[in-house]
Amino acid sequence: MAIYSIKPVELSNKTEYALLALLELATCYSKGEHLQIREIAVLQNIPSRYLEQLLATLRRKGLIKSIRGAKGGYVLAREPGKITLLEALNCMEGLDPVVSSFDYHHQTVEGEVIQDVWQEARQAANAILQKYTLQDLCERRASKERRELMYYI
């Protein structure tokens, strides 16, 4: 019997770049530092113009704050441990984790069963994304960097 798997849900470039930018800001948070667009763009190889749009969205949605002036930049609006990956994803993709666009009035019993299982899968994915925070990403990155350093020694 063959085992099949569905194509994995992929992050859009927009969400991936936003998460990379948030990760850089989370790294600076404990030091009280801020980052400018060009710094984030260089650190994560993100086009500056595109990053500018993403940061504007993150600012409007309340995940980051901007600091004005020549030495200005961006900082997280809250501690990295208080910003979940689900929140960042919803911010960038405009998703509502509980609303389904499926019309229950125009379907068969079979369609309902399929939608029930699909809803369960989405809820499982949302639960995982809700569980992880930007702080978790920072810790995982540091752990991987330590392992790579040990590998090269």
Question: What this model shows, in words?
Answer:
By secondary structure, the chain is mainly alpha-helical. The chain has one domain: Arc Repressor Mutant, subunit A (Orthogonal Bundle). Helix 1 crosses helix 2 and helix 1 packs across helix 4. It contains six helices and two strands. It starts with 12 loop residues before the first helix and ends with a helix. The longest helix has 23 residues. 58% of the residues lie in helices and 5% in strands. The mean pLDDT is 87. It has a two-stranded antiparallel ribbon.
Tag the structure with descriptive keywords.
153 residues, mainly alpha, Arc Repressor Mutant, subunit A, two-stranded antiparallel sheet, 6 helices, 2 strands, globular
Q: Fill in the CATH topology.
A: Arc Repressor Mutant, subunit A
Strand content: 5-15%
Tally of domains:
1
Q: Using the 3D structure, state the CATH architecture.
A: Orthogonal Bundle
- Can you identify the CATH superfamily? Winged helix-like DNA-binding domain superfamily/Winged helix DNA-binding domain
Poorly predicted ranges (pLDDT <50, ≥5 residues)? none
Query: Helical element count?
Result: 6
Computed CA radius of gyration, to the nearest angstrom:
19 Å
CATH class: Mainly Alpha
